[in-house]
């Protein structure tokens, strides 16, 4: 499913990612089941300046660049790309722009703010990778450990390493790509223990798409298994491990595994695009989809504020040491030494290009290095990318399918163009959403 929301300078393949709960048939089925339509013209929200601390209003961005970013986000909402979005930009780890646009729940007067809570899908993967690397740093795990060390009965587990799970080179079939086996959709509406879903992954047929270490295919299965390994080694649930070792130390007060059924006024509701511009549909069976089957592959909820803090801490070496972080953002290689990105198999054209590290993509945008990940889960889209040469991080969270990634690219293009301009301004017409 590819949509080119921006100018031709953004590759169509950049616009879509792997939906955790609905890669192919599930997405189609959800759309087909969406018989109840909710139409609303999403309007841009001008944030209450009292909501943003004074330090946040002292921006390193020029006023003209700030205005262009603001206008780009407003146009995104006005053109019906998403019911709502939260946008936060930081430079050198400090926020310089934080605003919300549109609505977190349509039909209400509840606007999106930088601290609105969204599901973030596969952005979860970098948290799971960091947890694994913390255990490596503590000497409790090796990247070369075999899957069979933790799950002795997993078929072929003695041939799969932790490193291969982290880099999508294990060959283990992606459990969210289930073709016409629609009973699996029903399974995803039930709560599953970690052991139960590991067994579900192990029972796939065929279980391997290629011999471990010989090719690359994006698979949620690997990161679910990594989350299960964290639980095995720590003796804690993934929720509790993340809270104790990642969220609490970094002050990520609104980030959690979305498996506890927590609701509240700060949470955004997810939507699908409607049949016409500015219309949206609620996600069918949204309340029934069990986040227990997402686990370490995509079960987190978070905010733009928290993800900005997270990224700053990760890059500063406050999550894992600098050596392990360098490994995290190093392009994966296969057993024969070739870059994993040179041997992608059975990937759709919508799959983003570039290389892959440990739960993080390594690519380029307009010729500049780009490090981050996108997330997609029914009703939500997320994009968190850092541009290291300019020291910018852009976080965009949306409560609509396909609602964030295109906007993040548009904003990043403005920032990159502004960074290369003597006065920090951007020529009119650059990176305008269509």
Structure description:
With 434 residues, this protein is α+β, with helices and mostly antiparallel strands. The chain has a single domain, classed as DD-peptidase/beta-lactamase superfamily (Beta-lactamase). Helix content is 29%, strand content 15%. The chain has 13 helices and 13 strands. It has a 7-stranded antiparallel sheet, with helices on both faces. A hairpin with a 2-residue loop joins β10 (361-365) and β11 (368-377). α3 (63-78) runs antiparallel to α13 and α7 crosses α8 (220-234). The longest helix has 16 residues, at 63-78. It is globular and about 55 Å long. The chain starts with 24 loop residues before the first helix and ends in a 15-residue tail after the last helix. The model is unreliable at 1-59 and 426-432 (pLDDT under 50).
